[in-house]
Amino acid sequence: MITVTKQKPIEEITRSLEKCPSVFIIGCGTCATQLHTGGKTEVLDMKTKMEAAGKKVTGWMVIPTACDELTKDALSAYQKAVDAADCLLVMSCAFGVQTVRRHAKKHVAAALNTLFLGKEEKPGEILEICTQCGNCVLDKTGGICPVIRCAKGLLNGPCGGSVRGKCEVSPETACAWQLIIDRLTEEGRLDELEEIMPLRDWSTSPSGGPRKITIK
């Protein structure tokens, strides 16, 4: 599992640091390093860009896993340089940005956009596998998620627009429901598709605000 990120345009990053003459740059040694969006190379490149924009860079570091609570210890190790900065520029996923802010009482700016949770299908190619919708139907679809894999998010079978197992939206994209049909056929469960899935419970959607669960 990997959190997929993409670096924001440098103009947007610079605007977010408009009131910050000095910055401390933080990268992540896990997902962002693997994706080349926030590893050592990208952090040093960002340092050069910030200095070219007239910012004083008080220091930089690449935290092994920015979303981990050990971030607190990493910040403490660079306390002097962190304190000297007006803002912290974080090159990690959104969770990492929030973790940094929780342990450093200072303005944080996100250098990356967090896109999705994915899995590396083959070297250099990451496929989105889960939107964390809170209403899983994988037991009914052979472990293939129609919410993510189907371009239309259909829950009750193919739309009729696929051609030779490819989605009408893009010939490069496999029809999710063709994959589901093939999988259920292999399992001897194709007849289960005759059951109409109930209306989706959107109360679990992230669009309703932050979700919360209590572990008992």
What does this protein look like?
By secondary structure, this protein is α/β, with parallel strands linked by helices. It has two domains: 2-115, Rossmann fold, CATH 3.40.50; 133-196, no CATH class. Helices cover 29% and strands 22% of the residues. It has a four-stranded parallel sheet with strand order 3-2-4-5, sandwiched between helices. Strands 1-6-7 form a three-stranded antiparallel sheet. The radius of gyration is 22 Å and the shape is elongated. The mean pLDDT is 89.
Descriptive keywords:
Rossmann fold, 216 residues, 8 helices, four-stranded parallel beta sheet, alpha/beta
List the helices and strands and how they pair.
Elements: E1 2-7, H1 10-16, E2 22-28, H2 31-34, H3 40-52, E3 56-63, H4 71-77, H5 79-84, E4 87-91, H6 94-103, E5 107-110, E6 112-122, E7 125-130, H7 146-149, H8 176-187
Parallel strand pairs: 2-3, 2-4, 4-5
Antiparallel strand pairs: 1-6, 6-7
